[in-house]
Specification:
It is a single chain. The chain is built from 11 helices and 14 strands. The protein is of the alpha/beta class and 425 residues long. The strands form 4 sheets. The chain has a 7-stranded mixed β-sheet, covered by helices on one side. Strand 11, helix 8 and strand 12 form a beta-alpha-beta unit. Belongs to the PC-esterase family. TBL subfamily. It comes from Lupinus luteus (European yellow lupine).
Length: 425
Amino acid sequence: MQIMNLSSHSLFRTKLLFSPYLFTTLLAFIFFTAIFYVHHFFIFSQLTPFSTFHNLTQFPSQEKSNVHKVAFAVEETKERCDVFKGRWVKDELARPLYEESECPYIQPQLTCEHHGRPDKDYRHWRWQPHGCDLPKFNASLMLETLRGKRMMFVGDSLNRGQYVSLVCLLHKLIPEDAKSEETFDSLTVFTAKEYNATIEYYWAPFLLESNSDNAIIHRVTDRIVRKGSINKHGHYWKGADIVVFNTYLWWITGSKMKVLLGSFDDKEKVIVEMPTEDAYRMAMKSMVRWVRLNMDTNKTRVFFTSMSPSHTKSKEWGGKEGGNCYNETTPIDDPTYWGSDSEKSIMQVIEQVFRKSKVPITFLNITQLSSYRKDAHTSIYKKQWNPLSTEQLANPASYADCIHWCLPGLQDTWNELLFAKLFYP
């Protein structure tokens, strides 16, 4: 009622008093609305969602980041999509991501086409997660992210295969005179000179010091690891900006593992046997502790690649008795398949150690999806280091390599998953 009785002069004065405030408010509203739409435009157009390494390192775990929440809201709508759960689909248009002949960095143990593999379908399978798509691998973005940085793969020959795959995915964007690869004992370094960047591989099959540490001569049956010895190798890992660890295959020697309590230089060595799971847990805890003490996780991204499966018993997927991956040309289509070569007890150890750890390590769970790919191994199509006997030649399955993977092939998918977790963690 009081407002109704105000004079027109008072009303005019009120407008003059409040108009500047209303005008400022309106301008602020327009400004923030514009920012909101521009921000969402860039996200939906997928223009480098984490376009600089600064962004990546600013949110190392990405679990509490608002940027992380927005990215997932776009990529995965209401629920997170588990990119490690899905199926293999044939894709002859987009696969392979490169040709074997185009990448001179593939080792002769992995060049299946060059060594006469007749079928080519193994190169044309694409991993399709349930409910979402993997981001397309962007080699330019990856190289820009690595500018002035070190990326390192640490582990056994399966991790070396992933390293080679990544180099193959990137090297075509680098001029011939601006890239090189050198090996120094256990360390192999690929250098992209224009980017001042290196992608490195370090041979350490147990992560801990062992009697299998020679990068060339390491095929020993009586394997021994030294307790508390991760610093022996860790010295070479310091300063890396992205690290991808793996270790599994070399631990599978039986139900027990030999562990050295002293030094390999001791005249009288104290060696104990312990269950493989306990020895593996010891190594995993050492790795986590080493990361905590030696890496700034605000600046470094750390990954761990899970067990790479073997396919040595074809009976497990409905094949004949005594067979293996030899002559296999299609993936396993049973979504519940899990081969006995992938020790679930080891997987449980990894889960237990990571669950208790406060160190942010991203887990690349490639085991199940790789278990389907009985067709993707090098089999007999690789360089043979020793002459084959008449008996072996008569039975190719007897010397088929059902551990390592052809390139291009499965391990390119591992790097697509690494790329997804690096930029959409």
